């Protein structure tokens, strides 16, 4: 990361949205093409799923700073900051943080992390300005992408370096401590084209103090991204992609697992670093056969850092030595005696301190007497839980035109996932998996199309599984179609759920605790008294989905309607934290509803985009914190958005955006999240460069907190100003 650090010290800036000549969304009667649902290039009227496409025209119109905000254009998609510095995106959400039931890809590279199943939106090593389009498959897609494409797929496709020329430098600043910059440089020569982007973002999160204390939810993110394309000959091309990210999050103390027994001297922070390299070979074998071979490796390290003195609540002043019991061998033994039941152990500890100790509790009393006699004081030190996640992946894909009426995509994948953590899995765990997939598209007869897809996979930790999808498309007019889709998918348990072996080891213990831990705490390598482990019996989660859809496009209007019913079974519920680890597969969720998206271009310079959804969720055994406590799910009963863009002329552009979520998160209260945005942009052309200026205001129309009670901004309006020079 030395080169990364050097680049970040350069004086730089973040480009504003450039005004390309407005591409007509509805300039003809051709149906737009999509790539994601079946791994085939298909007209949107023939795909076996509901799809939302967010192209560059829509991206520019939003004025968004961060990628997650773009997903507010997707019906049924919740996209907010659950915490002030942690964006979360969830489709038909069943949990409110670290949503783990949707696959996110960048240029075909999975962003779904294997160790602690989640997608970290802060850490995506790409900037909005480098995105060409986003295709969102709404509904299970494991038949095309395997386990963990559970409720949908977000496929982020970056800009091809051949479509960019020159360099751009820009800055962005605003209230809420917004300070961004970005540099992009691109060049093409002799069949080789390249683009590189270096960027940094910073903001202050939710700024309203909570319980009289600062929120501590600011963040700082730096990214670097390279994409190169090499034309070898008429049939072959190579693509190289590489990059990474660094991120620091300030954490409020209540977000820490150690808040209840720590007097912090170093407030908690969460840090991550990521790097990846990807190589793709494309070959046009014949007019009827295309071959793609892709390989990538990626590395991810995430850690929490904090330091302080440890205590038992209520005793920190009168008996500070009691804090030493938290890391004693005797309290660990008592914890094991009570079958790792934290509540029973805490009750036994209180009885040992203030009641009549039992025989099993006496060693704890003797340990405390030793600490008091030797004036050990409170133990002080640091705790730094971390996890390293690696993935090595190679995939071969063939697209074959069988005849004039059928096409087949077939391929294979080999993947090695690795999780390494002394805290979470007490070492390193590997998970090797093999996959075979295929999708067949058949034009049975005009106007009937059939899509059949399947994905077979086997991995070391979860066993062997098969996901399937079938779709019948009735294209009764060239630009209108009805679709019937049935799909099954699964989410396999991650490395932590399968192989958890939790050990929290303090570092740099103070005084006698650090000088002679064997004498003071009963063991030479002290640990927090709780320890948990997985029994390896967690089953994959399953979903069955049925939908009826209607796609239409004519003249200046395009719409897509979806009615759906989803049954989620064997969902992992029960606690998964270091103190309580009791995962099970008892939760069941049934979701049904309707979604709609509409685009209208009444004039070449006007674009109107409207989305809406209504979702009904019913849960059995809703016992998160593991997964599905529906009253804390990242979902809204009703979601709606409206985006309007007006290109006044070649120099000026206006846009507005409205987003509303009703009955947000807690079904027992009418929580509402509502926001209106306005963007004004101006472009000034010079003889050798172009200056672009932009102003964005986001105004909250609702007073309710966002998902959680302490998620409030100090001001109702956020704004930022941007300036960019392209040359």
Describe the protein in words.
The chain is mainly beta. It has one domain (2-308, 384-493, 538-726): Maltoporin, Chain A (Beta Barrel), CATH 2.40.170.20. The chain is 10% helix and 51% strand. It is built from ten helices and 32 strands. The strands form four sheets. It has a 22-stranded antiparallel beta barrel. A hairpin with a 2-residue loop joins strand 26 (584-603) and strand 27. The longest helix is centred in the middle third of the chain and has 13 residues, at 342-354. 47% of the residues are buried.
Quick description:
Helix content is 10%, strand content 51%. It has 727 residues and is mainly beta.
Number of domains in the coordinates? Answer: 1
The whole-angstrom Rg is 27 Å
Unreliable runs: 1-28, 623-631
The biggest sheet amounts to:
22 strands, antiparallel, barrel
The total count of helices amounts to 10
Q: What is the name of the CATH topology?
A: Maltoporin, Chain A
Mind telling me which CATH architecture this is? Answer: Beta Barrel
Number of strands: 32
The 3D shape can be described as globular
End-to-end distance: 28 Å
Which strand-content bin applies to the residues?
Answer: over 45%
Provide the residue-averaged pLDDT: 89
Can you tell me the CATH class?
A: Mainly Beta
Structural class: mainly beta
CATH superfamily label: TonB-dependent receptor, beta-barrel domain
Detail the topology: elements first, then pairings.
Elements: H1 2-8, E1 33-34, E2 42-43, E3 50-55, H2 56-62, H3 67-70, E4 77-83, E5 86-91, E6 103-106, E7 109-110, E8 131-138, H4 142-145, E9 152-158, E10 166-174, E11 178-189, E12 192-203, E13 219-231, E14 236-250, E15 262-286, E16 289-310, H5 329-337, H6 342-354, H7 362-373, E17 380-383, E18 386-403, E19 406-421, E20 427-445, E21 448-459, E22 463-477, E23 480-491, H8 495-499, H9 511-515, H10 517-521, E24 541-554, E25 557-573, E26 584-603, E27 606-620, E28 636-647, E29 652-664, E30 672-685, E31 690-700, E32 717-726
Parallel strand pairs: 6-9
Antiparallel strand pairs: 1-2, 3-8, 4-5, 6-7, 8-9, 10-11, 10-32, 11-12, 12-13, 13-14, 14-15, 15-16, 16-17, 16-18, 18-19, 19-20, 20-21, 21-22, 22-23, 23-24, 24-25, 25-26, 26-27, 27-28, 28-29, 29-30, 30-31, 31-32
